[in-house]
Amino acid sequence: MANTLLSIQVIPRTPDGGDSIPYVDEAIKVIQDSGVKYEVHALETTMEGELPELLRIVERMHEALVKAGSPSIISQVKIAHHPQGISMDKLTEKYRP
What we know:
The chain has a 4-stranded antiparallel β-sheet with strand order 2-3-1-4. The chain is of the alpha+beta class. The radius of gyration is 14 Å and the shape is elongated. Helix 1 runs antiparallel to helix 2 (51-67). It starts with a strand and ends in a 5-residue tail after the last helix. It has 3 helices and 4 strands. Helix content is 37%, strand content 28%.
């Protein structure tokens, strides 16, 4: 069982002040390619895994955004770390139909 939930919202600056959604899509692609369990929500994406692995994914997200042309990125990150284990499903099961 995973020991960490990490939610991230990336706020990339765009070179021309244009739409940031294509950059956000690039960041989410990094998560998709990582193989970790994740859920995309309206304002953030939550990943489930081991803390070092999730932090490396955050680093790769930033690298991908810079490579895509973003001159700077702000990320808001929330981490729930439970050494005995934690899961998105268990944490939210009472809210699911």
